[in-house]
Design brief:
With about 230 residues, the chain is an alpha/beta fold. It has one domain: Rossmann fold (3-Layer(aba) Sandwich). The chain is about 35% helix and about 15% strand. The longest helix is centred in the middle third of the chain and has 22 residues. The protein is globular, with a radius of gyration of 17 Å.
């Protein structure tokens, strides 16, 4: 997943362009295709995920949004392949921090990441209008343009470089462009620790009148990264 960059010129080498598959999304956010069949969905930030690509094949209406989508497809594909190779080397050292039921082994993980990348970049060439460039915490969409917004592996995970105010501003913006609900997964940082301000965020959102639930997910790869925040307007 790519990371927000504060400078005016984004250096592609400073972001991570790795994505999850459509099936991973459905499991992470505990949705079935029927649940989403009539919804207009935003994936933000989407990175190299294949959610929009495979979603379109099964008839879903999904828009992907990310800071890197101004780059050429070939540049993103090359960056993604380099990032996957680098990640696999890291995973060999840290695989005890993960649960391997979903992927089986490192080779299975690599195949999932490559599949997501290829599906995403192929779809970007075919349906470029589905991939919108934006820099959080600002989005180029109208109020309540989407029924559901999903945000995976970004908020909370990068707590070491994204402060509390950024999290609040980003969640507020995701809610602004969403009519019904926002789901955020997971609730841990990269070290596997629950984000320290989760309860503060929940209390703030509840005070604004939102219904907020912390729900178990059907997906767990990083140990204990098996819950999501569901915010209903």
């Amino acid at each position: 997943m790519s990371i927000v960059e504060q400078s005016t010129k984004l250096d592609l080498e400073r972001i991570i362009f790795i994505g999850r598959t459509f099936k991973e999304y459905m499991d992470m956010f505990s949705f079935s295709e029927d649940d989403l069949s009539t919804k207009k969905i935003l994936d933000c930030p989407a990175g190299a995920c294949s959610f929009a690509a495979i979603g379109e094949k099964v008839g879903l209406n999904i828009t992907a949004c990310d800071i890197v989508y101004d780059y050429s497809v070939e540049a993103l594909k090359g960056k993604g392949l380099r990032d996957i190779a680098h990640a696999m080397k890291h995973m060999e050292q840290a695989k005890s921090n993960y649960i391997w039921n979903y992927f089986g082994n490192l080779d299975g993980l690599r195949k999932h990441r490559e599949s997501a990348l290829y599906d995403c970049t192929t779809h970007m060439k075919q349906s470029s209008d589905r991939y919108i460039s934006a820099t959080l915490p600002t989005l180029p969409f109208a109020n309540e343009q989407f029924d559901i917004t999903l945000s995976a592996h970004f908020l909370f995970m990068y707590a070491d470089r994204l402060d509390y105010d950024f999290h609040i501003e980003t969640i507020d913006e995701l809610l602004r462009v969403t009519k019904d609900e926002v789901r955020i997964f997971p609730l841990l940082d990269l070290e596997g620790t629950r984000y320290e301000h989760i309860d503060r965020i929940i209390n703030s959102l509840t005070a604004q009148g939102y219904k907020v639930d912390e729900l178990s997910s059907n997906y767990e790869f990083q140990k204990n990264a098996n819950s999501m925040l569901k915010i209903i307007k």
